[in-house]
Amino acid sequence: MRPVLIGTAGHIDHGKSSLIRALTGTDPDRLLEEKQRGMTIDIGFAFLNENIAFIDVPGHEKFVKNMVTGSSSIDTGLLVIAADDGIMPQTREHFDILRLLNVRRGLIVITKTDLADTDWTDLVEEEIREFVQGSFLENSKIFRVSSVNGNGIEELKQYLLRLPDERILSVYEPELFRLPIDRVFSSRGYGTVVTGTVISGRVRIGEELELLPLQKPVKVRGIQSHNLAVNEIGVGHRAAINIQGVEHGSIKRGNFLAVPGCFKTSKLLTCAVNLLATSKPLKYNSVVRVHIGTSEYMGRIRLIGPDRLSPGESAIAQLIFDQPLSAGFRDRFIIRQYSPMITVGGGVVLDAMAKPLRKKDQATAESLDYLINCEGTDLISRHLDLNALKLYSERELTLRFSIPPDRVRNVLAELAAAARLVQIDKSWTSPKQHESLRNNILNVIREYHRKYSLSMGISQSELLEAIKIPLELINYLLKQLADDRRIKISGEKITLFEFQIEFSDIQQRFIETLETDLKQAGFNPPDLREIHQRSPLSEKDVQLIIAFLMDESRIVQIDRDKFIHREILDRGGRQIRDYLTKNQSATVSELKDVLNTSRKWAIPILNHYDKIGLTTRVGDQRELSNE
Q: What is the largest CA-CA distance in the chain?
């Protein structure tokens, strides 16, 4: 059974710690300073039984960040209000924090009833009912207790013992193990020990974990829960974990223990944020304090779209931090002003692998609503549909949505069976935009044919530049189009299936003349400048025809502006082979005479024969290649 983790919330000196002590017999004030000052400074813990734990948090405004640390992992809020005081400033702020962290179940306890008469307590209860109207506590039970004389304690205790049967499951519960660290110490004979509440997944003794954001591998040596040694522990449990592989001095509150390789560290998060109705407006690029997990981070909030966020409003924003942190998909956080330090709002992480967005990217931001509302199969399907020009691996989806690899694999298989996505090698994408992409490719090729009617086709690199999609995806689409007889692929050239080059009479005569001239010239052909001078065609047409003849292997380019007819090169190759068979080696001058060419042409021609593997250069000599 997943345990119930109850977090106290309320103003300083409203009796939270005393209430827990009366219920459990445990004093949650564990620090000497807390006992001396008579108030809770740091979070404390106590257990009602093996399935119910309390997190006692400080009420003083100076220690609200510790209150957030405790509340970040609770599923049941216990709002404590003293009968003699009623609702006070930290009552309101703690209550706001519980709501911002999406705590969905709770109860209210009016303490110190021994200090107020019944009529006054009735007024306090009426005020509380009005205060919580419209919230998760609207219909919750209200208990009246006194930790001094014990009135109401047993009734409250019996109610709490029934809570596990009534537990409300979270809408989105990832299964990858993660524990935000709230304490770290060294124990003699054990070494480094960290404590925290498991917020997702399970871990066993002997398993490897990763310490984030330090990205250090650690090994679990031992686990304790509720002061008992256990072999494994799961979500919702308080845990003390003895780890091996890192000194306790390098760990601090706010670090995470997590499944290796499944969570990224970043200084940038894309989030949905909302302001409290009672807060002040929040301006673009304001410096804020962000409480996420068990730590506080300084950062700037950059709203996507508006210049400022008014009280009660929501928006998509990016949080830019001073230091790297580790966050998971849909992690909740609290936003507090830099100064004065008051809670102004909160939010939920939508992208822990975010890329920077511009302020004017409001349309992009508004399209992210599915990251808030969709679940499981629909979440991944919608993400792939909206990013159909990208390819995603199983690992990328695990990192993006904090979903275990085996569950990602099952979802992908389910979507593929329903033809809702396509597998390309080891990656996946949506078929949603494939038809429009196919048409786009055909249009690009068609336009290329219109502009370059004498070309043998567009190259793949030119097509990639025009389409701008991943190479694996364009290769997949090209194969589809070729199989459907919509295009032809010849080496690096791509044409429409029905495309044929059609030369005009003057172009055809130029081709015949050029081939004749190159054959007659042998190894002393005209260079490119001379070819242009002899041609009646434009320079562009000459270049396209030369490219066509090269694609047809009728002429060969042996230097930047030097072309020789294929028949001449084949004949020359036979002549060189015969000569070197008899003489074993020859100089450039000797082979120049064999080919009956000038020195100007001899070197690029012989370099060509070296390149195709006919000859090998050895010093100043050339020999037949052994290959």
A: 123
pLDDT score of 24: 86
Position 463 pLDDT exceeds 60: yes
Domain ranges of the chain: 4-166, 178-258, 265-369, 374-429, 434-496, 505-624
Beta strand 286-292 with 332-337: parallel, antiparallel or unpaired? antiparallel
Same fold, 178-258 and 434-496: no
Please report which residue ranges of 418-470 form alpha helices under DSSP H.
Answer: 434-451, 460-467
Rounded distance between C-alpha atoms, residue 365 and residue 582, angstroms: 76
Residue 616's beta-bridge partner residues? 623
Please determine, looking at this structure, whether the domain spanning 505-624 carries the CATH number 1.10.10.10: yes
Digit-coded pLDDT (tens) for 12-33: 888 888 898 898 887 654 433 3
CATH number for the 4-166 domain, one of 3.20.20.140, 3.10.270.10, 3.40.309.10, 3.40.50.300? 3.40.50.300
Put residue 423 in one of left, alpha, beta given phi > 0 → left and psi -120 to 50 → alpha: beta
Mean pLDDT of 310-323: 93
pLDDT at 53: 78
Distance in angstroms (rounded) separating the CA atoms of residues 349 and 271: 5
The count of C-alpha atoms lying within 13 angstroms of the C-alpha of 351, restricted to the half-sphere facing its C-beta, is 19
CATH fold for domain 434-496: Arc Repressor Mutant, subunit A (1.10.10)
Fold of the 178-258 domain: Elongation Factor Tu (Ef-tu); domain 3 (2.40.30)
146-188 per-position pLDDT tens digit:
999 999 999 999 998 887 655 444 434 557 899 988 888 888 8
Q: What is the pLDDT of residues 257-306, one digit of tens each?
A: 999 988 989 999 999 999 988 888 999 999 999 988 888 899 999 999 88
Q: What is the pLDDT of residue 226?
A: 73
Contact 375, 326 (CB under 8 A): no
* Residue of 350, 295, 344 lying closest to 317 (CA atoms): 350
What is the number of helices (H) and of strands (E) in the chain? Answer: 20, 33
Could you please state the CATH topology (level 3) that the domain comprising 265-369 is classified under: Elongation Factor Tu (Ef-tu); domain 3 (2.40.30)
Tell whether the model's pLDDT for residue 193 goes beyond 80: yes
Residues 6+ positions from 338 with CB-CB distance below 8 Å:
286, 287, 288, 289, 298
What is the rounded CA–CA span in Å between residue 310 and residue 557? Answer: 68
Helix (H) or strand (E) holding 417: helix 405-417
**Tens of pLDDT along 579-607?**
999 998 999 999 989 999 988 888 899 99
Q: pTM surpassing 0.90?
A: no
Phi-psi region of 125 (alpha: psi -120 to 50; beta: other; left: phi over 0): alpha
Level-2 CATH architecture, domain 374-429? Orthogonal Bundle (1.10)
Question: Beta 427-429 vs 178-187: how paired, if at all?
Answer: unpaired
Q: Output the six-digit token pair for 554.
A: 């009728």
For residue 28 the two structure tokens come to 């949650």
